[in-house]
Amino acid sequence: MKLRHLLSWKSLFYEVILPGLRQFGRARCNSALSLAGHLSLLWPARRRALTRALRRARWVLQADWEPRAWRPALAVNAIRFLARDYPLDVASDVEVFSRFDVDGFEALDQALAARQGAILVGCHLGAHISALHWLYRREVPLRLLVQRPRHVSRALNRRFDREEPHPQSAFFLRRDLPPGAATERLLRARAALRDGLAVYMAGDIPWIGANSRPGRLLGQHRRFLSVWADLATVTGTPVFFVFCTHRPEGRYALHIDPPRYVATGEELAAVTGYLARLEAEIASHPADAVAHLLWPCYGPPLASSTLATTRPSRRVATAM
After folding, report:
1. pLDDT tens across 220-236, in order?
2. Running DSSP on this structure, what letter comes out for residue 43?
3. Rounded distance between C-alpha atoms, residue 274 and residue 277, angstroms
4. What is the pTM assigned to this prediction?
5. Can you say whether the dihedral through the CA atoms of 90, 93, 95, 96 is positive or negative?
6. Residue 123: exposure state from Cβ atoms within 10 A (0-12, 13-18, ≥19)
7. From start to end of the chain, where are the E strands?
8. 91-307 belongs to which CATH class?
9. Contact status, residue 74 vs residue 283, Cβ threshold 8 Å
10. Residue 25 host element (H or E)
């Protein structure tokens, strides 16, 4: 078992290659990841898969970009997507902050300063794990109502294991979480919001079961997990949509939408509006839609029994 682990590509990538590349600095690390993405296009099957995915997205979104022109960028971002926040695992906060172009943080900062709490709705677009890294570095009192992300930086793992009020370890979800434990997580999230903290959830998870509502994403009608909308109505907490995309030379663009409020009875409209907002981001940044264009759970319709067990990410898919 140990030998198999040592020989796995994940072990090599996350424990050897990425830590080694990080030592060479931002520019060289990014150049190496970009080169790996371009090299992946040497395989005809890979080129065809990326082209098909981009063509389908262009047709669904009625976008005016050319799939072949975006194919190299999608290939590169697929590698950067896998690298997650490893390139940011450096000691200097100043160095990390210098890599981000951020807009919309002021409103979130004001809501937290006023002890209103905040619901952050993220997704699997672009550098979503890097966005969490930045928020933690800015000392946002953040709790993740998701499965514990795997293959992340030491800095994030240290945050996850901190002993503090409303400890993060008590918020992490599992797909096999019993109903009673799932309810406990929701109560913890509500308590954290009432204490003025921010709670992060993913808004793009296809799900069959409780706390889900119908929606449409990239032409496919499915049910999506909607815990964030339910908590927003119960607590009256402002909701912030968060998007983080890759920029050239190892940089990132973090955008936080203005706050929204969800009234009782408006949960379905809130979910529909979020999915439309996500589609707009995909149309604007197709090379960052690695998950939404290439993962099976966002593709053609699946049987209900299959969909219920298909997870968009073993790191972020929730269990409620």
Report:
1. 999 999 999 999 999 99
2. S
3. 5
4. 0.91
5. positive
6. buried
7. 100-103, 118-122, 142-144, 198-202, 212-217, 220-225, 239-247, 251-256
8. alpha beta
9. no
10. none
* β-pair partners for 143: 199
What is the per-residue pLDDT across 267-319, written as a single tens digit (0 to 9) for each? 999 999 999 999 999 999 999 999 999 999 998 754 443 434 444 543 333 33
Residue 166 CA from chain centroid, whole number: 22
Q: Which one, of 183, 233, 177, 224, lies nearest residue 203 by Cα? A: 224
3-state helix, strand, coil split of the chain in percent (to 5) is: 50, 15, 30
In the chain, CATH 3.40.1130 covers 91-307
- Burial (0-12, 13-18, 19+ Cβ within 10 Å), 58: middle
Q: Could you give the CA distance from residue 320 to residue 183 in angstroms, rounded to a whole number?
A: 9
Parallel, antiparallel or unpaired: strands 220-225 and 212-217? antiparallel
230: Cβ contacts below 8 Å, ≥ 6 apart: 211, 267
CB 87 within 8 A of CB 78: no
- Residue ranges of alpha helices (H) inside 115-242 are 128-137, 154-160, 179-194, 227-235
Do 120 and 145 contact (CB within 8 A), yes or no?
Answer: no
Q: Are 87 and 49 in contact (CB under 8 A)?
A: no
DSSP annotation of 285 reads -
